[in-house]
């Protein structure tokens, strides 16, 4: 079965509160991580069935699942807008397997161009994606100053310095 979107009526769920609810495993939040944790707990392989939970309850305060992932149809248009994550890299093996193989969700290729043209912002400096390779082609190193205080807070006053980082 292929879904382009999973709605709450596709998922067995209860609303409201229950007295004397017996909970084996509780997951707070039905975002991507909470849903994946529940999926793995219910479908995963265990060394022995002693560790398999009898039930998994996922609690969500919103009226929908997905957390920060949300697709909306823009008013008066046949256009879907993404309010959270909009694409995934196929190098994310778990994500790709879940989307394409396990749940067989509709997906559209989203090419993002040449990685050499990407712009990066690292510790206060801008870099082009191919800057490392260009420096090495010239027999040089990529050098940049970093402010140690930005990433070593709490280690001591000696760390509040500037260091020359050389990546070769």
TrEMBL record:
Signal peptide positions on this chain: none
Pfam families for this protein: Amino_oxidase (PF01593)
Gene3D superfamilies for this protein: FAD/NAD(P)-binding domain
InterPro entries per UniProt: Amino_oxidase, FAD/NAD-bd_sf
Domain of life: Bacteria
Protein name: Amine oxidase domain-containing protein
Coiled coil regions in record: none
Domain Amine oxidase: 32-130
Transmembrane annotation, as ranges: none
SUPFAM superfamilies hit by this protein: FAD/NAD(P)-binding domain
Molecular function via GO: oxidoreductase activity
């Amino acid at each position: 079965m292929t879904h382009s979107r999973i709605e709450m009526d596709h998922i067995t769920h209860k609303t409201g509160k229950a007295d004397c609810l017996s909970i084996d495993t509780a997951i707070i939040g039905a975002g991507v991580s909470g849903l994946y944790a529940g999926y793995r707990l219910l479908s995963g392989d265990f060394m022995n069935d002693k560790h398999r939970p009898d039930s998994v309850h996922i609690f969500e305060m919103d009226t929908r699942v997905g957390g920060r992932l949300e697709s909306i149809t823009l008013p008066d248009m046949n256009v879907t807008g993404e309010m959270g994550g909009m694409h995934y890299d196929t190098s994310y093996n778990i994500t790709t397997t879940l989307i394409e193989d396990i749940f067989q969700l509709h997906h559209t290729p989203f090419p993002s161009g040449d990685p050499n043209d990407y712009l990066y912002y690292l510790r206060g400096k801008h870099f082009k994606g191919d800057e490392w390779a260009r420096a090495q082609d010239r027999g040089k190193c990529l050098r940049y100053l970093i402010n140690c205080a930005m990433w070593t807070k709490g280690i001591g006053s000696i760390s509040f310095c500037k260091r020359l980082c050389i990546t070769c």
